[in-house]
């Protein structure tokens, strides 16, 4: 689990690509202070596992499912990436619950400056619209943000100055692709409601338990 509060902006040092997989080597400093092999690190909002590391970089493998479902396949050597270590239970929780499991790829379709904020309109597949909540939480490239508006095509976010400086999202432009993870609470509620609509009236039944895998 993560919070969506970016700890460091790293740089892609090397990439080894297969047909539908890859290995990333990312240069960074701060997040390596307590790193161990097998640790989880969010890279642009994607939960990856540390396979190797030194004092200046770490390596992580990207399997086919992640390669095809996220924007990691677009990375090139020299690109900057948002980094966050897995959530610590003994600190303040500044963002929201983030799993690092990307729901979909969004495309930035508009960028505008309003006073000290940058507003971005992000197009997202219609299947995720039910997970968007006005003033609710959303993660864009691993950055915890607030949904400021919802349209038939996607949603709008607003970046405050500190987010502009401490995250790569502030440097994105029209046409760029981003990893989007919707709020996990919205997804759970949507799942519960949709299942409830298909269940027979009268509450919990043996048939319902069997269909859910509780009975064999």
Could you characterize what this model shows?
This protein has 216 residues and is of the alpha+beta class. The chain folds into two domains: 8-85, Elongation Factor Tu (Ef-tu), domain 3; 104-182, Beta Barrel (Elongation Factor Tu (Ef-tu), domain 3), CATH 2.40.30. The protein contains four helices and 13 strands. A hairpin with a 2-residue loop joins β3 (40-43) and β4. The chain is globular, with a radius of gyration of 19 Å. The model has no long low-confidence stretch (mean pLDDT 91).
Concise summary:
The chain has helices at about 65-70, 160-165, 185-200, 205-210; strands at about 10-15, 20-25, 40-45, 45-55, 55-60, 80-85, 105-115, 115-125, 135-140, 145, 150, 155-160, 175-180.
SS summary, helix count: 4
What is the class of the largest domain in the CATH system?
A: Mainly Beta
**Class based on secondary structure composition and strand pairing:** alpha+beta
Order of helices and strands: EEEEEHEEEEEEEHEHH
Q: In what range is the share of β-strand residues? A: 35-45%
What's the number of domains? 2
From the coordinates shown, what is the CATH architecture of the largest domain? Beta Barrel
Sheet with most strands: 7 strands, antiparallel
Mean pLDDT: 91
Order of strands side by side in the largest beta sheet? 10-9-13-7-8-12-11
What Rg is obtained from the alpha carbons, in whole angstroms? Answer: 19 Å
Ends: how far apart?
Answer: 32 Å
pLDDT under 50 segments (min length 5)? none
Shape: globular
The helical percent reads: 10-25%
Q: Work out the number of β strands.
A: 13
């Amino acid at each position: 689990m993560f919070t969506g509060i970016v700890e460091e902006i790293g740089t892609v040092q090397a990439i080894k690509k297969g047909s539908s997989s890859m290995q990333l080597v990312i240069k960074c400093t701060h997040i390596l202070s307590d790193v161990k092999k097998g640790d989880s690190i969010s890279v642009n909002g994607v939960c990856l596992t540390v396979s190797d590391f030194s004092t200046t970089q770490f390596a992580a493998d990207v399997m086919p499912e992640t390669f095809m479902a996220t924007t990691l396949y677009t990375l090139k050597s020299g690109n900057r990436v948002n980094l966050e270590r897995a959530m610590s239970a003994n600190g303040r929780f500044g963002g929201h619950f983030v799993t690092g499991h990307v729901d979909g790829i969004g495309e930035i379709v508009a960028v505008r400056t309003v006073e000290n904020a940058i507003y971005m309109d992000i197009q997202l597949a219609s299947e995720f619209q039910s997970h968007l909540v006005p003033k609710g939480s959303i993660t864009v490239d691993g950055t915890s943000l607030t949904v400021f508006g919802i349209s038939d095509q996607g949603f709008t976010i607003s970046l405050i100055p500190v987010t502009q400086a401490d995250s790569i999202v502030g440097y994105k432009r029209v046409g760029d692709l981003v990893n989007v993870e919707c709020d996990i609470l919205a997804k759970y509620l949507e799942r519960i409601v949709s299942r409830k609509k298909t269940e027979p009236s009268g509450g919990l039944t043996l048939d319902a338990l069997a269909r859910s895998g509780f009975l064999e």
